[in-house]
Structures are given as C-alpha cells and as structure tokens.
Amino acid sequence: MKWTVRKFREAKGRELLPCVTAYDYLTGKIVDRAGVPLVLVGDSLCTTALGHPTTIPATMEIMLHHAAAVRRAVVNALLVGDMPFLTYTTPEQALRNAGRFLQEAGTDAVKIEGGVTHAHIIRALTGNGIPVMAHIGMQPQSVKANGYAVRGRKDSDTAQLFADLDAVVQAGAFAVTLECVMPDLAVELTKRSPVPTIGIGAGNGCDGQFLVLADLLGLGDGPLPKFAKAYANLGEQATDAVQRYAGDVRSRAFPDAEHTY
Ligand code: KIV
Predict the structure, then answer these.
(1) pLDDT tens digit string along 12-44?
(2) Rounded CA gap, 212 and 200, in Å?
(3) What spacing in Å lies between the alpha carbon of 41 and ligand 1's midpoint?
(4) Angle between the 25-33 and 60-73 helix axes, to the nearest 10 degrees?
(5) Which residue's CA is minimally distant from atom 2 of ligand 1?
(6) What mean pLDDT, rounded, does the chain reach?
(7) Percent of the residues in the chain that have a pLDDT greater than 90, as a whole number
(8) pTM of the model
(9) Span 177-181, average pLDDT
(10) Helix or strand (DSSP H, E) at 94
(11) Ligand 1 atom, smallest distance to 44 CA
C-alpha cells in the first residue's frame, strides 16, 4: 500500500506510525518489505554506515548517492531525504538542495533540523511544492553548539519547544520529529500538533517513532543510546557467518560438490 504525504499527515490519531532509516538498496528493501509507512535516508548514515563520529561531514553528494539507492528499493513507504548540515542556510540554497533530493534522488520529501529559526526555510520549501518533515528538540547537526542533552528538563526548553512546534507547523511541515524530549512534554506537544509527531528518545506518547536501522538490527559496534532497542543481533550473526565461510575455505570444505559446476 503506497504511502503519500497526505496519507501520512492524515494518519494522526488513527494509527501509530513506525518509521525507520535506510541507507542503500539492501536496507531499503528490508524496511519497505516490512511495511513501514516512512523511510528516512537519515544523515545518521554518516555515523552508522560511514564511520564518522557525528553527522556533520554529510554532504549533498553523499546524501543523494545513498538516497537514490534507497529509492530504487522503496516502493510503498514515503521516502524522506535528510538535508545535511549547512545545505539550507538560506531559502534559495534550501530550495536548490531540496529540489535535488526530489529531482535527482527521487525522494518524496525532505527533513530539516530547526524550529523558529528555520520556519522561513520550511515555508519557502512547502510554498514551492516540496513536502517538509521538521525536526525539533535535540538537533544532531547543532551538537557542537548545543550538545546532546535531553530537551524539556528546564522551563526555558519547554517554552522553546512549543514555539518551535508552532513555527514549523504554521510553515507547513507535514510531520515533526521530536528528538530527545522529556516524555511528558512530548505528549503535550503531540496533543497540540495538528500533524504527526515522530519521537526518537521522546517516550511512547508521540504519534509514531523513529529507530535508526543499525540500532534496530543490532549492527552497530558501540553501546546503544538509552532510547534505542535492538530487535536482532545481526552484527554478531554476520561476523559468525563470515568466520564459518573463512574456516570452510581454509579447510577446502567450500566450495563443495553442491556449489561447483
Ligand atoms: O538521521 C537520522 O537518522 C535522524 C533520526 C531522527 C532518525 O534524523
């Protein structure tokens, strides 16, 4: 069943929305077959797939390369491309780069980090037919300025988050990612928001959840963040498979008669 921006927006209050990331054709196939409504080619690919310590090194060229591969795999989910650091500093620059996601990689929408500060950017994109998922709360691209702390522990955070939510919704965002927000506050934001809120590290009271695929599949090599859950242990299983293959080659057990012309 094909997910559109409209269908996703209208799902609020009707069904919960499990969203995941994907980074290439292989992972795109896995998540689309699972029937999730939205797949994000997140700039988290910088850390999970490319081994960088933060998402800051992501560039348009990197993101477009990965998004185009995921596009070839994803048939039913809504496909969102994550705009990388410093590629949407002005409305003109944002339009050019978001346009590249839709035209060159074939995504259905883009995601950008920022609230009140980025409402004019979101308005420029939505006003030109580019659907935008907003991203407020903890914003990994600003980690050098603002850190990774959970938002909503201080009154000033709360006021800021409400202002950010109102600003991105009024600018036309079709959904809002809430990252690392105290759960009670995430519930209040979700009640106030006319569009779906998708939480990551924001408790279970949002309209949907994001989980980074490497965490979900148990593919990463470090400890998981507190909010992430591994539903499989594929990293260990994959290393074990490669070790068994290497052992078979060393003992001439592979290829055997069944795998030989
Ligand atoms: O890049 C990413 O993976 C994200 C998360 C919110 C899922 O932005």
Answers:
(1) 999 999 999 999 999 999 999 999 999 999 999
(2) 9
(3) 8
(4) 50
(5) 42
(6) 97
(7) 93
(8) 0.97
(9) 97
(10) helix 91-100
(11) 1
Which residue from 1, 5, 10, 33 is spatially nearest to 20, judged by alpha carbons? 33
| Pair of tokens at residue 125 | 């994109």
Q: Outline where DSSP puts E strands in the chain.
A: 17-21, 38-41, 78-82, 109-113, 132-137, 175-179, 197-200, 208-211
Q: How confident is the model at residue 148 (pLDDT cuts 50, 70, 90)?
A: confident
Active site residue 179: yes
Pocket of ligand 1 (CB under 6 A): 21, 40, 42-44, 82, 177, 179, 200, 210, 212
What gap in Å lies between CA 24 and CA 67, rounded to an integer?
Answer: 7
Q: How many CB atoms lie within 10 A of CB 3?
A: 20
Residue length, the chain?
A: 261
Of 20, 41, 55, the residue with max ligand 1 atoms within 8 A of its CB, to mutate for a pocket test, comes to 55
